[in-house]
Amino acid sequence: PCLTWLCSPLAERTGKVLGEFCRCYKEQYGVALFNSVCYEIEGNGGPQAQLLHRKVPLEDHVIYSGNLFQYIEENKKWRNRFCVVPHNYGLILYENKLAYERDLQPRVLVNSAGYKILTSVDQYLELVNSSLPGVTPKSGHSPILKCPTDFPLILWHPYARHYYFCVMTGKEQEKWRAVFQDCVRHCNNGISEDSKVEAPAFTDAVRMYRQSKEQYGTWDMLCGNETQVLSNLVMEELLPELRTAIGPRLKGKAQERQRTWIQISDAVYRMVYEQTKAQYDAVTAKCEQERPQMESTIRTDMDQIITSKEHLASKIRAFVLPKAEICVRNHVQPYISSILEALMTPTSQGFAEVRDVFFKEVTDMNMNIVNEGGLEKLVEYMEKLSHLAFHPVKMQSCYEKMDQLKLEGLQQRFDVSSTSVFKQRAQIHMRQQMDDAVYTFETLLHQELGKLQGKDELCKSIQRILERVLKKYDYDSSTVRKKFFREALLQITIPFLLKKLAPTCKGELAKFQELIFEDFASFILVENTYEEVVLQSVMKDIMQAVKEAAVQRKHNLYRDSMVMHNSDPNLHLLGEGVPIDWGEEYSGQPEAEPAADKRRRAKQVVSVIQDDEGVLPYEVGAEVLTQPSSPEPREPDPGPPPSSPDGVEEIREELAKESLGAAPAPPKPGANVPSGANVHHTTPVPPKPGADVPAEAEAPRATPASPTPGAETPSPPASVACHQPSDKETGEEVAPLEGECSPPPPTATTESSEGVQTEF
Known about the structure:
By secondary structure, the chain is α+β, with helices and mostly antiparallel strands. 51% of the residues lie in helices and 6% in strands. The radius of gyration is 28 Å and the shape is globular. This is NIBL1 protein.
């Protein structure tokens, strides 16, 4: 369906939402800048972490790579794809492994922020049926999606394009699910915490905007980088209007209408994303331009600004605090201990599991060194241990403890739409604490190696260092968890209190504006000061509840009075040194090797599965690998490729033959044999992290392969420069083709028209 008629009203509606948000952002920017300068002057409080923190944990690594099937919507066929997950957690899909090793254009680049990972077609169909009310396929009719195996992996998003994959075994499905979930977890956390001004200004602006629309409580779609979050904010308002406008116009069977609706939603999301990015970049650039003058004013008039703010706060406190305290006493205080207990149990179990996994890995390494050899084995095991925190499968037992988190009646009482926000935050803390423990361990061990003689001394030293690190972990884990509990309790109770107090307090706030000097109006806001007063009304009860839990030694929490001072005074100096490369340092410098070989030998965190069936048994589809723009020459045409099954039934028949031991036909001499295409590899060749998803690259269309006769072939684009890796953000930003108002209509096309599909 063509969306040309919608372009103008969509752009106007999007511009209106963004205009309101940008006004909120500019207001919050001044407040955040003032708070940042105050924090810098006053110094940071809180206990010092005992564990070291690694700055670049996954340099020169990829998380995972391997083969899986992808469903191509353009021609409704399943294709074998080679998927690479680089250190920035983007999903990059290549035609096959050979295309990856030749550094050809990837087929798909996906940023998984905001996605849900589904392992059941029924789960997916339930979500699809609810997305377009009144359109449900009749019983017995063919569903929108059929999977050729019993092990699907579906990436579902409420607004953007969906991605459909499947694998051949349950073991593969579990591993890919863990990898995909790690990608989602990482990409959802896309707003950098290193930014002390822009990040709080943005999140506060989002909160203030939603509260102005009477939307309080947690928000599930605060996912991804700033542009993604803003696009979700716009789509939250646009989608109901869009559904009302377009729903009745959809024609065809229920499945076709559902498929068309998903394509329309994705097309609108892309249009919104482009407009959002341009407008948000403009407002941030303007704020950054004004920052030096604002900061100069803050530093010059700091005392007067603080005095003015305290005067305003005292007036608001006298008006609001009595009402807030009654509300806290009647509606919040009785439930704080229940909320805290619900949070503490799964979170502390997860952190205990992190400790156990770390202890087990180091102990197993130590035993293997005793049985198998000394330093050589140590180097081999330390290379694996150094990235334990980023191994999705080994960390899964820690993460899944948070699945027990249920607020039940409390969730409805306090208007918490979902617990996923808290689960994800706790899981990110777990991964960070694991990496801090591992990095501290390897730093201390590396320091000791020069002094050790013999295998026995090495094993004793490992055990001694392990005990030291575990003590540090227990202390830091307690500190991190207590902070997490306090923040979670505030996230649950403050929106509830603001909503309760709004009818009696919010309308009266305007009269306090006259108490702010005009020169300081950029740094002091009545709304923010009001929220701080409300926070103070409940903060004492929250602090007391967490303190009591620590005094009772519930869940191995340390009391606030327990402070570790300078137990290792020189440890943090060690952490500032050059990162340790165990393989290079203790195995000698590797000889120079060609870029292609280096790409194939890149270190990989998660090992590829080796099943009896081997990797996927055939390549679905037979497009030519070498593109016209590729610098590599074409190889001689070996003749027509063997036929490949495309439909669900044919794939099932082929899988059945494979399981009965049908031997694949050998390839013809000189033919390009893609990885996974009638070849069973015994040793996977790991990829290089150089194929990271670029942060800010326009997405070109891939050069089309030979089209199917009679199919519509898109015109080839102009030549495009190669992607350059970047760590600024995960995934891609969409660049619509020149002259397009919306993506092209989903007419029948060949597989080659898929091009490079990018996600934001």
